[in-house]
Amino acid sequence: AGFTGGDPIVLEYERTSRGTEPVWMPDDDDGFTLRNVPVFLRWVPTRTTTRPVGYVLPPAMASVVPLLLDHDIAVYRFRAPATLDAEVYYATEVRQDEYFQGHYLKSVEVEKRREQVEVAEGWYWIPTAQSRANLISYIMEPETDDNLITWGWTDHVLEVRPATVAEAMARIDTTGMSAERLERVRERVRERIEEGQRVPMIRITRYQPMPVARMQPFNQYQRNRYYLPY
User: Fold this and answer.
1) In 3D, which of 228, 217, 221, 204 has the Cα closest to residue 67?
2) Segments in the chain forming alpha helices (H)
3) What confidence tens digit (pLDDT) does each residue in 161-214 have?
4) Which residues contact 209 (CB under 8 A, 6 or more apart)?
5) What DSSP line would sit under 146-202, residue for residue?
6) Quick one: DSSP state of residue 40?
């Protein structure tokens, strides 16, 4: 990833043929015959984004830190407040998909906004200039198919909400509401949907001075604990 980021991260891909190759295929005589067949083992990116220099996470995402440390990902913690130029994702729709391996898998539709983010002491910094750069971006980017949102690590932050005003209003008991009050409720619902929900994995696209210290696992037997070296 380097110190400046900028290389592509694959968000979506498709499987295509890498050509025709000789492959042993089963035949009707319970044996095998060598045949030339198309082999679909080539994955081609169809949508990418650029890799940031790192991601900042709020303290609400502290439960992810042991997971990152277990994968030998360097994690730093802010020891003083900072104001950072950042790219922030807002979820315009959060979907609850299939049930798989004990989880209701989630997916989101997002829009990206550039903002000045006020980072407080205790936030986390995960730079991409390390050996696990691809893994970091794959789990931090909300539009990949296997990220922290997918597996429920953000369930306490991102809610499954109605995607339209009509869906939201259908869940509200409007019995006895005056026309004026009903319109106010509808407007509040519309504003909430348009505002979106801030995704807690925030992109930093250029290096900026940060008052951080690297975190260390407490010990191999208590991986859910960690400390700041002083």
Assistant:
1) 217
2) 65-70, 133-140, 165-170, 179-195
3) 887 888 878 888 888 888 888 888 888 878 877 778 999 999 999 999 999 999
4) 82
5) SSTTTTTTTTTTS----SSHHHHHHTS--TT--HHHHHHHHHHHHHHHHH-EE-S-E
6) -
Helices (H), 24-89: 65-70
- Determine the Cα angle at 141 with ends 63 and 103, to 5°: 55
Burial of 197 (C-beta count, 10 Å sphere; 0-12/13-18/19+): buried
CA distances from 176 to 55, 169, 211 (A): 48, 14, 55
Contact of 87 with 202, CB cutoff 8 Å: yes
How many other CB atoms are found less than 10 A from the CB of residue 65?
22
pLDDT at 172: 87
What residues have CB less than 8 Å from 194, skipping those under 6 apart?
none
Rg (alpha carbons) of the chain, rounded to whole number: 23
Q: What is the pTM of this model?
A: 0.81
Whether 81 and 121 have beta carbons less than 8 Å apart is answered as: yes
Contact indicator for 188, 181 with CB cutoff of 8 Å: no
